[in-house]
Amino acid sequence: MLDETSYNIDKDNSLLILDDDLPFLKRLSAAMEKRGFKTFSASSMAEFGRIIKDVCPNYAIIDLRLTDGTGLDAVENIRNINPNSKIIVLTGYGAIATAVAAVKMGAIDYLSKPADANDILNALVFSDQRKPPPPVDPMSADRVKWEHIQRIFELCNRNVSETARRLKMHRRTLQRILAKRSPR
Description:
Elements: E1 14-18, H1 22-34, E2 38-42, H2 45-54, E3 59-63, E4 65-66, E5 69-70, H3 71-81, E6 86-91, H4 96-105, E7 109-112, H5 117-125, H6 141-155, H7 160-167, H8 171-179
Helix pairs in contact: 6-7
């Protein structure tokens, strides 16, 4: 087992992991326990609600999209209970709008899946010490379009019809665009 002092983990090493992907949740929980954390796992907002009543984690890893809600609500709940907790938001649906919203709500970092345990550990523990390098290449035109659509989609509370109206786009065309993965 790795020594928690080598990572500068706080004495309160409680870590809440909220993700609805059960295999990923189990693997990440085991990996973070090996790195010195005392983990609490939840696969839904309902489980999260039960855990947060008893444990106010010092660290949290929150999935953005859950089957029964959004991880942003979990970030807000944790922040209200423990304003000093370090929260990482993970998502397979990365967009600038949601990253900005997560950071505004109190997350210290926003990582795209698949992120490995070392990337997550670095974001949790070394967040104050390192800044990411500036991008080398500008975003592609497809990526800029995708980010704009995602921003409007989030502003419309994920309502496809309203988003399509605001973008002056046919609803089915928007649904096809949203069904595709984001461009690189």
